[in-house]
Design goal:
Number of strands of chain A: 23
Largest interface: A-B, 52 and 51 residues
Helix content of chain A: 25-40%
Number of helices of chain A: 15
Number of domains of chain A: 3
Largest sheet of chain A: 11 strands, mixed
CATH class of the largest domain in chain A: Alpha Beta
Radius of gyration of chain A: 25 Å
Distance between the termini of chain A: 36 Å
CATH topology of the largest domain in chain A: BirA Bifunctional Protein, domain 2
Strand content of chain A: 25-35%
Structural class of chain A: alpha+beta
Oligomer: homodimer
């Protein structure tokens, strides 16, 4: 176990310093690296493979619900950005400006897209004619730039990868239905793929997207008790379609502005994945998203046909559709390998040595529980598939349990304010709905209203932050 | 056939005005649209689906040969761009510069990546340690910006989508092997997926990538007799690895600079696809890349169970893995639909009416030849698959025949110079290898040396452009 220590030593325990634990895990695992441009990250192959997994899962769901992909220009003229008032106020302070093309100064500055509502609405206004053309169900996968002062890889960076859906509908109800349908796809990405439980609900007006009628969100709880906004879906009403004069001839033969939605998930989800499941040995990846689901490590591999058996198992797992690796490297010790793959969060490790050959079995170790199990070579691949399946479900349950244990109900605001401990996790509170209470909460505690959850409870008739009548039960937390 | 005329009228015949034919085809088919930023295009769903097809095919081949995807920042500091002399001279005149982030002026300008050698080499220099880490086989899918004066959608735009591979190797030979291996993958994308035959070979020093040791290319011939550079693979030697001080400890325990390659294909391939196969009715798509391979059009659909049969065929084709659509719209006439799908280039149209039900058959029309064939409902899906398979092969053969008929051998340079007709298509010529001849050819004829093909022929011992000894047989052509 000597080698074990070396790896563990490299990762700061999360209890000691959570941000350092996070940084250690992402850098040691080569998920990401800092780039020479401040706030911009390089996503390395192991990190990018996680993004490819999220893309594949979400893209399939988008397409199954009738959405198609497009691509809009990276650069947006300043005059377009300025068309929707709230939008430009929200985004102008954080955009990167292109002022020169080649050696020439441009007549009009272009911003690197922080999001694409404006340019997409401009094009939609050219294309849309009749209610027969609706709905418009389009999406794009791309990178966006938002000049951030304080950055952390995956969680908040000046450039990130995402998808942005932009749809148009004949009626308000259809736009609302779309907004919630997408939020549910996002919930599936979080819960079914990433085993990351989320609270779904509506954002307060203060926290909604710049230019939105209403913003819906999914919020996850990290190991350190902070919340992460993991994906948002906006009902934009007619704010943009009026500003951009998008019109269609309706069934009544009159001109109308369509209703509009936009929605996005990003590489930020990878940060959430790490902070929901990781431990002091490193990453812990749910099987469905893991780029490698099982690694086979032969021990004393030149003896008794160990290597041959390992190769045979490798083939049979591969045939079962399991993403498997065989580590037959002879330079590193088995112990070194065990720790290496624990750090990388591979869901299953399969150890096979001379005695196992004799006994027609191998040792299987689950990353989430570190439990060891002897598995017979008979029906081996099926059994591994079963373990992967249970592990996916168990990881979601474990994360859900952690969230429940860290979801509190406010008793009184003064207690909440004075206790740092109370501020860890989600806290349910009643809120009158006014901006003053929301601002006060943020200023006095650093916590914010994460969402008005769909699943409401009546904790009290009085707002916890003032004496007015309560309108909503909300989740509050400090957030990334 | 009245409806036919309307569609055909909208597309300028290619014999009349080829550039207008091209523009008509891409706009009427909604593959692309112009954006409010000059030279930037919007790729619409039907065009983007073609790109997704190319991505899926190429990405699988890259991964099967050991490559992994990453993502590097969009913005590159000016100081990094300046590190490799030839590279900066080649690219600086055409980059877009970011000078402000939010409201602050940046201390150093950042360029929007025109290609990513510089930032990737910067990162590689941080990561690489030992020969044991090699090869580095990485790729990224992204968009790049190159400020172009004259643009045409897909063919030359100020922003385009592409992939850029960047690999490092221990030896020159391994880098050269990689360069050619990728060129062959590109050839497969062109020929096996897009049915677009290509000539493969080496670029002259004048035409090579800025900073490359040698550039390899695939060149295709368009309908109008102009060539299109459809993909390039560069052996970069140690130019960048020395400039960026990328070093590794070799087997000899000494420091070395690795050998380096980069390679790319882009949305330009879609322009080639259109100009190789299209006709005066519109697009003609090879089955493997076609987003929709077959469309079923029921005629008099409410009678004799026509619609039910159409639905049954739809299901059976879908089960066979055919990308199929059923057009049961009742507002448009069958004739309108026939012409619409011909314009869209769907490989197969299936017409089914009351008499067909009686005769247990349907009429199948191939888009490439417009040939009609009666196909029995017995074994229908298998037969459609067979037709799609032959069509893919036939389209490649047809394009190859067109290229062969338009590949000439130069007799003497004066004749070539004086005849516009001679300049159509590829012309094989002998070349001494000197820059003066190459410049003269370009200046006097508008044609350029497209490549020194791998398949050499000895047409003469004397250079066709001067009196010196010939070194290479080259393909010359006017090019996009």
């Amino acid at each position: 176990m000597g080698e074990n220590k070396d790896f563990v030593k490299e990762i700061t325990p999360m209890e000691v310093d959570f941000p350092r634990w996070y940084t250690d895990v992402i850098l040691k695992n080569e998920l990401v690296d800092y780039s020479p441009v401040k706030g911009f990250m390089v996503i390395r192959p192991y990190g990018y493979a996680l993004w490819e997994g999220i893309q594949a899962f979400a893209d399939e769901k988008f397409k199954a619900t009738g959405h198609k992909n497009m691509y809009f220009p990276l650069l947006i003229p300043e005059s377009l950005l300025n068309k929707e008032k709230e939008h430009v106020e929200g985004f102008a302070p954080e955009v990167a400006w292109v002022t020169h093309g080649g050696s020439e100064e441009l007549a009009e500055r272009l911003c690197v897209r922080p999001t694409s509502e404006t340019i997409i609405c401009h094009m939609y206004s050219k294309w849309l004619n009749s209610y027969r053309d609706l709905p418009y169900l389009y999406n794009q996968w791309c990178s966006v730039v938002r000049w951030e002062k304080t950055t952390r890889p995956f969680l908040r960076t000046s450039e990130f990868l995402w998808q942005e859906g932009h749809t148009l509908h004949e009626t308000y109800d259809e736009a609302q239905e779309e907004t919630l349908k997408i939020l549910d796809i996002y919930r599936q990405v979080a819960e079914d793929l990433l085993a990351m439980p989320v609270v779904v609900g509506k954002k307060s007006d203060k926290e909604k997207f710049a230019g939105a009628e209403s913003t819906y969100t999914m919020e996850a709880l990290m190991h350190d008790g902070q919340a992460l906004q993991a994906g948002t879906s906006h009902n934009l009403g007619q704010h943009f379609t009026k500003a951009f004069e998008i019109k269609f001839l309706g069934r009544d033969n009159k001109e109308h502005n369509p209703y509009h939605t936009s929605w996005g998930i990003s590489t930020r989800l990878i940060g959430g994945l790490i902070m929901v499941h990781g431990d002091n040995r490193g990453l812990v990846l749910p099987p469905r998203i893991a780029p490698v689901q099982a690694v086979i490590i032969p021990i004393a591999m030149k003896k008794f046909g160990v290597l041959e058996k390992a190769e045979e198992l490798f083939k049979s797992l591969k045939e079962q559709g399991i993403r498997v690796e065989l580590d037959d490297d002879t330079k590193e010790s088995p112990g070194w390998k065990f720790n290496q793959y624990e750090m990388k969060g591979y869901p299953i490790r399969i150890e096979i040595g001379p005695r196992d050959i004799e006994n027609n079995q191998a040792m299987v170790v689950r990353r989430d529980t570190l439990e060891k199990e002897i598995v017979s070579f008979d029906g081996f691949a099926e059994k591994i598939n079963e373990i992967l399946e249970s592990m996916q479900g168990d990881m979601l349950k474990k994360a859900l349990k952690h969230r429940e244990e860290n979801t509190h109900t406010i008793t009184n605001y003064e207690d909440y304010k004075s206790s740092n401990e109370a501020k860890k996790g989600f806290t349910k509170a009643m809120w009158c709905g006014c901006r003053e209470c929301e601002d006060k909460l943020k200023q006095e505690t650093g916590a914010s209203i994460r969402c008005i959850p769909f699943q409401q409870e009546n904790l009290s008739n009085i707002c916890h932050f003032c004496d007015k009548e309560a309108k909503h039960m909300v989740y509050i937390a400090r957030a990334y």
